[in-house]
Amino acid sequence: YEKRTYEAVDDADKVSCRPDFSILIYPAYLTVKDKDDAIAPELPITANTPQTFLTMTEDDGVRVEGPLFYYLALKKVKVPAEMHLYPTGGHGYGLRPSQHTVTTWPKRAEEWMRVRGLLTATK
User: Fold this and answer.
1) What is the number of other CB atoms lying within 10 angstroms of the CB of residue 62?
2) 5: phi > 0 → left, psi -120 to 50 → alpha, else beta; which?
3) Averaged pLDDT score across all residues of the chain
4) DSSP for residue 41
5) How far apart, in Å, are the Cα atoms of 76 and each of 31, 98, 102?
6) Burial bucket for residue 66 (CB in 10 Å: 0-12, 13-18, 19+)
7) What pTM was estimated for this model as a whole?
8) If phi over 0 gives left and psi between -120 and 50 gives alpha, with beta otherwise, what is residue 92?
9) Which of 27, 41, 48, 107 lies at a 20 to 30 A Cα distance from 72?
């Protein structure tokens, strides 16, 4: 979104394609393989990176260190970020209810979006 890769052909091409925010749920491949503290080069984090909400569980088969280091990298360049780390719930919990507290993540994400001004009040 930071670099135009083609000639603009209409007015839609003149509008920024930068997302207003990111919501990363049980994210993987954020860091270099076997080097958790090195963010993947195809995911450059700059001050222009969209504000980000992350959710992860400690018992996910995806290593939790990747999202933790991604969160720290966002904070380092002052990108607003919030991370929720739950003890259990595994991977792929999505929106389905379960006995795990991770199932509260949609409400946390909604609250985060509302506080950040990304949602308007319902009538």
Assistant:
1) 16
2) alpha
3) 91
4) T
5) 16, 35, 26
6) buried
7) 0.86
8) left
9) 107
CA distance to 18, 22, 26, 29, 52, per residue, from 118 (Å): 15, 11, 22, 27, 12
Distance CA 70, CA 118 (A): 22
Class of domain 11-115: alpha beta
Whose structure tokens read 């985060």? 112
In DSSP terms, which residues pair with 113 in a beta bridge? none
Residues 6 or more apart whose CB falls under 8 angstroms from that of 17 comprise 1
Residues 84-110 as b or e (16 or more Cβ within 10 Å = b)? bebeebeeebeeeeeebebbebeeebe
Domain boundaries, the chain: 11-115
